[in-house]
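If you are new to this repository, start here. Below is one unmodified record pulled from the training split, so you can see the exact layout before writing a loader.
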Amino acid sequence: MTAFGGGTMVGVLTGDEDCMAKDEREGASGSRMLGVGLEMAVSVGLGMAVGWWLDGKFGWGRLATVTGSVVGLAGGMYLLIKQALEMNKDR
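And here is the target side for that same chain:
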């Protein structure tokens, strides 16, 4: 808080400011988790789309679609674990 006369910041947190800081941390965590979910969905979808295209181009049945989905899932899991470790380190 600043004084009305243009004073300096006070180094004491009131109860409301402490709650706001906690809410901001929780909001940041929620947005990180949303980002991780989107990364997972995009990686699986992209792997599946590339596999589907390869299947159509080379007539492989569904082999490339399934393989692309599994590779996308593995990539998404890698990103999930990497992000979880970073979030754990921040705490």
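Two things worth knowing about this chain: Residues 40-91 form one domain. The mean pLDDT is 80.
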